[in-house]
Design a protein that fits this description.
Layout: E1 12-13, H1 17-24, H2 29-55, E2 72-76, E3 86-90, H3 99-119, E4 131-135, E5 144-146, E6 151-153, H4 168-182, H5 190-212, E7 222-223, E8 238-239, E9 248-249, E10 253-254, H6 270-273, H7 279-292, H8 299-309, H9 319-334, H10 338-349
Parallel strand pairs: 2-4, 4-6
Antiparallel strand pairs: 1-5, 2-3, 5-6, 7-8, 9-10
């Protein structure tokens, strides 16, 4: 049993550093300048996150509403960088004219609803944590992030990325980092970091599927579909179904995600490839969910949630550790039936052994 007492100073962005690095090296100033600005801003926010962890963040105000009720607040940074910004919509307020505000508000609600309805979890921390989001962050900011306290969305540069509130799975992905922060608190480096990223992709995908009412067979299993601008040769940031196929672009390069352990990437960048090697556990979840059929948030999602919140997942867990726990969780909840078999086979197919 691991006691998760302190939180790692994790700063989690949806766009991987290797993508922004590629853009920053472009000979086109319209592409390079926003990417460099985004990288600089991310570095600042990452440092701020570390300092906040050391010094302690102010306690979040608890909502007056009862348990099981969301408490959302959306702010507008007005293209500045001071957080949270100017409050523009609170819980229960009618939609306004700003589509980014409305999408952020709806995405926070969709995430809250999935975790409550499917898993009985009251908000990100399980105890009714208010959900705050800031839109219109900075100028041409090519990212969205969870900083340990709230969601932040850039508008994109319009050349490579569009508004980051467009895909609901991006919102769900970043908020799921908060769930991991309050549960398993997976270390953001190497395989544990890749699991951290993968868990967010899993629940981001489930939130999109839940919102659309899709079965595992109907879903596209793409993360960030609709985020790439028309000039980009690609369909999303990542594909859980076929890692390594999300984009193949003259500027961005080719999606580097591996689908199996045979192509595992060893690198010192991106915290040991957390956004790259997450393709392996992502595909394992896709294989398990599609083998079971129906709504993926039900059986497959429940198994992953059980592992994330069960208290046995070590902070520095490797793929084998996580895989073994999913097989055990499937057996504990469903017995030695098709659920356990589907999960075990999925990990086998991606080359991750279970003990």
């Amino acid at each position: 049993m691991t006691i998760h007492g302190g939180f790692e100073p994790v700063f989690c962005t949806i766009v991987p550093p290797h993508v922004l690095d590629a853009l920053a090296r472009s000979g086109d100033p319209a592409l390079a300048r926003p990417a460099r600005r985004t990288l600089e801003r991310d570095a600042f926010e990452r440092t701020h996150r570390r300092l906040t962890t050391v010094l302690g963040a102010p306690a979040a105000a608890r909502p007056a509403a009862g348990p099981g009720t969301p408490h959302r607040t959306v702010y507008d940074a007005r293209h500045g960088t001071d957080l949270p910004g100017h409050k523009v919509r609170g819980e229960g307020d009618d939609p306004g004219q700003d589509a980014s505000v409305n999408r952020a508000y709806a995405g926070l609600g969709a995430t809250f609803e999935l975790f409550l309805t499917a898993y009985g979890r009251d908000s990100i921390d399980g105890a009714g944590l208010p959900l705050d989001a800031t839109v219109h962050y900075d100028r041409d900011y090519n990212n969205a992030f969870w900083n340990g306290e709230q969601m932040v969305f850039g508008d994109g540069d319009g050349e490579i990325f569009l508004d980051f509130t467009l895909p609901v799975d991006v919102i769900g992905h970043e908020l799921a980092h908060g769930v991991t922060q309050y549960t398993a608190n997976l270390t953001y480096f190497g395989q544990s970091g890749a699991l951290n990223e993968s868990v967010s992709d899993v629940f981001g995908a489930l939130i999109k599927q839940y919102t659309l009412g899709q079965t595992a067979a109907e879903a596209d299993w793409l993360i960030g579909a609709g985020l790439l601008a028309p000039r980009v040769t690609g369909k999303a940031l990542r594909s859980m179904k076929e890692p390594g196929t999300a984009y193949d672009d003259d500027v961005l390069g080719k999606d580097p995600q591996p689908a199996t352990m045979d192509d595992y990437v060893r690198t010192g960048s991106d915290n040991g490839g957390v956004h790259i090697n997450s393709g392996i556990p992502n595909r394992a979840f896709y294989l398990a969910a599609t083998a079971l059929g129906g709504h993926a948030w039900e059986r497959a999602g429940q198994i992953w949630y059980d592992v994330l919140t069960g208290g046995e997942l070590e902070q520095d867990a490797r793929f084998t550790d996580f895989a073994t726990l999913t097989v055990s969780a499937a057996r504990a909840r469903y017995g030695d039936g098709e659920e356990r078999e589907a999960v075990a086979k999925a990990w086998q197919q991606v080359g991750v052994r279970t003990r």
